[in-house]
Write a structure and sequence with these properties.
Helices cover 40% and strands 20% of the residues. By secondary structure, the protein is of the alpha/beta class. Strands 2, 3, 4, 5, 6, 7, 8 and 13 form an eight-stranded mixed β-sheet that branches. Strands 10-12-11-14-15 form a five-stranded mixed β-sheet, sandwiched between helices. α6 links the parallel β7 and β8. α3 runs parallel beside α4. The radius of gyration is 21 Å and the shape is globular.
Amino acid sequence: MSEKVLMKGNEAIAEAAIIAGCRHYFGYPITPQTEIAAYMAKRMPKVGGTFLQAESEIAAINMVYGVSSTGKRVMTSSSSPGISLKQEGISYLAGADLPALIVNAQRGGPGLGGIQPSQSDYFQATKGGGHGDYHLIVLAPYSVQEMAELTIKGFDLADKYRMPTMILCDGTTGQMMEPVTFDFAVKQPPEKPWAVTGTKMEREHNIINSLYLQADKLEEKNFERYERYKLVEENEVMYQEYMADDADIIIAATGIASRIALSSVEKAREKGIKAGLIRPITLWPFPKAAFAKAAEHCRQIIAVELNMGQMIEDIKLATEFKVPVSLYNRTGGVLPDVYEILGVIENAAKGGKR
């Protein structure tokens, strides 16, 4: 498809996954991501794929584990409480070095919370979530087009580094509709000599496993895995800067909050205030160098988040507290408007604090 089509963000993820070669989807309905499952239910049979609504989120993630072990591209999706139920399985995927794509269209929390958009699963996604030492590659789209592009990218990165990748979007980007094109140059999935595909008596058995009863063997495996994580941190960081080079005040935001903040930055510039934006696209690995560079010339960084303050901790670590880093937040599904954030920028320009 090279022409633009009007689609919801959730639908764009599903179509992009099919284009990427995903033929296996396992999930369970929960707002605000149910459109992904509904789209897959219609499309997968038409492309020779498998759609299965599992009996639970726990069942779905373990089905993902099984298919991934055979070397096939596979995905699941859910929303915040459903992702919590998948955490043990996600840890097993990481422990067995299995690639998979996991989508979390975040809703408000904690608990059942509400179905409105939120960014309160940042810690869960970037700091582990499940048990043990592991990371996910975490991608944060801010548009429907980027939902599609990062889905393709997510599958490629998962295969390249043999680790799960998560699309961490919010309910707004999942539900909003925009024109999107699927004119992608899709890479062929790499060969997976580790996969359990049957030996045909031509090779040794492959074993997919995350159990190591000998402590030294588990330690060796963990160190080896973190060497791969270092490569991810060195080579796969993504972010966008907007008017940040000469900015005195930098807004840090991701997802839908960054779209609102970008308009606020533009209006601040119209008023003669040197404001800029840094938008992390990879939440892990976090764009530390971009914030460290910004801290050399700006006077203040303001994290705009749809939670009680989570990404701000990574910003403070990246800047080594060389400049003040403050938080402007809304939570529970409430979105700030452009003039709200503009007011925060104006106050900071005058030397005030929130």
